[in-house]
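Field reference: "sequence" (input) and "structure" (output). Example, Metallophosphoesterase:
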Amino acid sequence: MTVYFTSDTHFGHGGARGRFRRPFESTAEMDAAMEANWNAAVGPGDEVWHLGDFALHMKPDAMAALLGRLNGTKHLIAGNNDGPETLALPGWASVGHYAEQTLDGIDLVMCHYAFRTWNGMHRKALNLHGHSHGQLKPQPRQIDVGVDVWNFRPVTLAELTVPRPRRKAVPVSGSP
């Protein structure tokens, strides 16, 4: 079993395409691509922690059908756009607003929102979050697991913890 993390799929939310500059021609194309990417990465015996904002503007039966088509045992950490219908979907193995776990010897603190401080941060615990759609300046041991950062698919802890190249500062015109 592999454990995956994701957030901010915003299934059914056409506004997400423009607001977060998603490269899809339609909401249906966006939803289909994210469903296909999810199922290409996640197997039926895997586990997925979705850190909020699963779907918007979808009826409960459509959300339930979508959740049922997504591979893996799915846990929801509620986001600001997850209403009572989303929280009540029968496809969630668990629903909460915050979770802590240890995976591969690494302590994880999970919430939809990024924290300034979190339990175990001085003992190298990681804060996994969503909500910011890749727009926050990265902080040490704090990782945005949102689909906008990770090519519209769930990712493993190993992928999240691989050092990523830093962008080089571009000199301002007229400076040395």
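The longest helix spans residues 27-41.
The CA atoms of residues 11 and 23 lie 14 Å apart.
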